[in-house]
Amino acid sequence: MTTISDAVLPLLGAIDPWGWQAHPEVWFLVLAILALGWWAVRVIGPRVVPAGQPVVTPFQRRAFVAATVLLLASADWPVHDIAEAHLYSVHMVQHMAITFIVPPLYLLAMPAWLVRLLVLEGGVGSRVVRRMAHPVVAGVVFNALVAITHWSGVVQLSFDSGTFHYSLHMMLFLSALLMWVPVAAPIPELRISLPGQMIYLFLMSIIPTIPAAWLTFAEGVVYRHYDDGFEMWGVSVQSDQQTAGLIMKLLGGFYLWGIIILKFIGYSRIHHRDGQIMRPADGRHLDLQRRVVEAEPVE
């Protein structure tokens, strides 16, 4: 008699999470980014940047390379294939990379002259970008997309349709790029104040806790296509689902709170330095003289 396990075992044996898969859409995106970066630095930059000034700084070059390498690593094989078919926790790490790390790196890599040329001196498109990058609009759009992408129906459709999956990741990446503009824009005209940035990032860390808590404490399997009987690295579907929720809540929260702390330290230093500059030196000398006179004994 044939048992259920006898029927399932051949299917499990055919699953190879490390089998190489080509993703030409990812290669095309990365090549397009590299081509646009080269064109901006080699063709446009020398025409608009005054002679003697660098088109890009070494830090901007490093940020661009780091963002591109991380984008390729998180969107290509094997991370992509494991994330979409086997472990939702890896899927969560992938989404964190393309929304929390890669977008601000690309913003830090952009020279100020390029941003002013594209955003401040452009036409209708630049006005749309500025409106979409408004903290309220960008924050609402990004978090709405994040919430939608965790709906089980959307996750299943993303698994079934490669085109929908690619389009969804592109929308997430672009919305994350706009979400980071108020914090990491290369020019001050597009950034909000440091206290505003800290409040903004605090809100960005609070909102994702809702889908994260839902994933962590949900009973049963939320995303059915991960429940195929194959447990990669011995991780059960339930444990994988809970780990994904914890990654979203803890790892994402710690990352944003780390940035908040760094910005608070920078704000404190600026505030202290401005206070020292505004305090008149003559006042300190007069105060010292007054204390010396008051301390002298009266004969």
Q: The biggest beta sheet, please?
A: none
The total strand number stands at: 0
Structural class of the helices, strands and pairings? mainly alpha
Strand content: under 5%
If helices are DSSP runs of H or I spanning 4 or more residues, what is the number of helices? 14
Which quaternary structure do these chains form? single chain
* Proportion of residues in helical segments: over 70%
Order of helices and strands: HHHHHHHHHHHHHH
Note the overall shape. globular
Task: Indicate the low-confidence ranges by residue numbers.
Answer: 1-13, 295-299
Cα end-to-end separation? 117 Å
State mean pLDDT (0 to 100 scale): 85
Number of domains: 1
Rg, rounded, reads: 26 Å
Q: What are the defining features of this structure?
A:
299 residues; mainly alpha; 14 helices; globular; disordered N terminus
Explain the overall architecture.
This protein has one domain. The chain contains 14 helices and no strands. The protein has helices at about 5-15, 25-50, 60-75, 80-85, 90-110, 110-120, 125-130, 135-150, 150-160, 160-185, 195-205, 210-215, 235-280, 280-295. Helix 4 (about 80-85) packs across helix 5 and helix 9 crosses helix 10. The protein is globular, with a radius of gyration of 26 Å. The model is unreliable at about 1-15 and about 295-299 (pLDDT under 50).
